[in-house]
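HUMAN: Mind making up another protein with tokenized structure?

ASSISTANT:
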Amino acid sequence: MAANPHDFICRCRDIENSYIEQTLFQRPDRPQNPLVVAVVGPTAVGKSQMALLLARSLNAEIVNADSRQVYRHMDIGTAKPTSGERSSIPHHLLDVADPDERYSLGLYQRQAQHSISEIVNRGRLPLLVGGTGLYMWAVVEGWRVPAVPPDTTLRQELEELSRRDGVGALFRRLHDMDPDAAEVVDHRNPRRLVRAIEVRLRGGPPSLRYRDTPPYTFRVIGLTMPRPQLYQHIDSRVDRMIEKGLVAEVEGLLRREYSLSLPALSGAGYREIGLHLEGKVSLEEAIQQTKYHTHRIARHQYAWFRTRDPRIHWLDINECPATAALRLTEEWLSEIH
């Protein structure tokens, strides 16, 4: 029977308990370049469960790297950690912005770096956890994120170009200006393409991938599973979100007068359920569209976290990865002390 990411921890518990007794993160001395462990992979693969196990076993704190979990009032549709999980393990960068608040990559990077620094200063292990590749790599690789303010006139011109000639016109313009930036920006996302062009035209660096070496040693654990199994887990999770009250959550956002056109509400589930509440699609259609949307997100995440990337230590969710993750982390801790 295929493994379930929600119970793989239990299946490995007996093996882990004997191992954990020998491998605790209790070193009082701070190394020159402290370790930060990132846990990445597609949505619904089990990153949050893995992070909680590592945090409980290794005296760690969790830093969110999910671009939707930063927003308040969006708990069910973003699969945000529960209040119990958040009270048992410190979590950072959850609920730090309202849905109509502008939240940028640069702001996220600064806040994540600050959280990591505070965790290290407390003598604990930072765990950077999430599936938003843009956020994750900006921190891990130390991208120089340009501080270029929005240009309303330019944005209107580029948005008109997109409406007239399609999103491909934006991608071609960015590629002509900055091929490196075009490689890392979602070519189907007009908002990100507009921002990349704006940065380039308004004095930003010639590539979004200019880097400063972070003062930490980053190691990356990737969780994966066969694609058909992943889609099944996604579909089951969407069904659980509906059972937990996703429709009521979206109703609450609309009552607060948050528009479905906001970037925060572009994530899977919110716009689809919002269209249902506006009477444009049935609930059954909205649920199915949410599942398909989430499948697309998972495929895009594999473009950010490639299975052949030598920096990522991939663990198959069907092969009891919790023990392997603990062992890897202890080895990395030993290497830098």
Notes: The beta strands are 35-40, 60-64, 91-92, 125-129, 217-224, 312-316. The chain has 15 helices and six strands. The longest helix spans residues 283-304.
